[in-house]
Amino acid sequence: AAKEAGRGQLRFYSNDLHRKAQERRAIEEELRDALHRGEMQLHYQPLTCPVENRVKGFEALLRWDHPVRGRVNPATFISVAEETGLILPLGEWVLRQACADAVAWPDDIRVAVNVSPIQFMNENLPTVVANALASSQLEPSRLELEITESVFIGDSKATRETFDSLKRLGLRFALDDFGTGYSSLGYLRDAPFDKIKIDQSFIRGAVTEGGRGNAAIIAAIVSLAEALDMDTTAEGIEAIDELDFIRERGVTTVQGYVYGQAMPQEEVLAMIEGGSIRIEPSGPEKSRSN
Ligand code: C2E
Ligand code: MG
Ligand code: MG
Ligand code: MG
C-alpha cells in the first residue's frame, strides 16, 4: 500500500512539473509580444529620507498587465525573460523609458533601474546605457543601476570592465538585495558601489521579539557602508516601528509601503506638481512578526 501511495505521489509530482513547464512556455510566448502590444509599464516606488520624509529618488519596477492573466508578478516573468534572453530587449526598453521619465522630475531626484546579470554579461550594456542617457538628456549622476551580488560570481575580468566603463559614464551603482546571495565582502572593497540596499528579509522581525540577530546584521551593514562612504537603503519597510528602528540606525533612505508602493509616471508627476516631494509615512504601528 505504501508503495502504491508513493507511486501516486510521484505521478502527481510529475504532472505538476509538466503543468509548470507548459505554463512557462506559454509565458515565454506571450512575453515575446508583450512589449509591442504595450502591455509593459514602468512603475516608480519612492526612496525617501526617513528624517525629513523627503523623496530622494524612485526605483523603476516593471509591471506586466496581461489581457487575460491580469498582472503578472515580476518574480515569474523576469526569470523567464532571463532564461530566454528576452531580458536584453526588455532591459533596454526599461533603461530608455526610465531615463525619459526621470527627465521630467526635479533634478535632485534620481531614478534607480534594475539590471539583470544577463544584461551585465552582455558587452553591449555600456553602449545601451550611454544611448539611453544621450537620447533622454538625463544627467548621468541621476541614474543609479541596481545590480545583485550574483553579477560578481566568478568575478571575471569582463564583469569588472563593464562595471568600470559604466562608472566612467558618471552614473551610480547600488548593490541590491544585499546579504541574501553568496556574499563575498571582497568586491565591496574593490568595486566602487555608491549604495548598499539592505534586503527586506533582515527588516521583518528586526524589531520584534527575538529579532536581535537581524538587528545586529543591519547595524553591521550600516557601519560597513558608512566606513566605505556608501549610502544605504532599507527595503520593505511597512510598519511605523520598523521605520523608527531604521531611522535610528542612520539608514540614508527607505523604500517600502510605509512611504508608498510603486506608482505610474502620471502619479509621480502629480506628486511633483504639489511642490517638493514629501510623504507622510503611514502604515500599521507594529511590525508583523514574519
Ligand atoms: P527588487 O529590485 O529588490 O525590488 C524591490 C521589491 O520589493 C519590489 O517587488 C517592490 O514592490 C517590493 N517592495 C517594496 N516595498 C515593499 C514593502 O514594504 N513590502 C513588501 N512586501 N514588498 C515591498 P516587485 O516589483 O515585485 O519586483 C520584484 C523583483 O523583480 C525586483 O526586486 C527585481 O529584482 C525584479 N525586477 C522588477 N523590475 C525589474 C526590471 O525592470 N528589470 C529587472 N532586471 N528586474 C526587475
Ligand atoms: Mg531593485
Ligand atoms: Mg531589492
Ligand atoms: Mg529585494
From TrEMBL:
Superkingdom: Bacteria
Signal sequence segment: none
Ranges of residues in domain EAL: 24-276
Part of the whole protein covered: 276 to 565 of 699
Coiled-coil intervals, chain numbering: 10-37
Protein name in the entry: EAL domain-containing protein
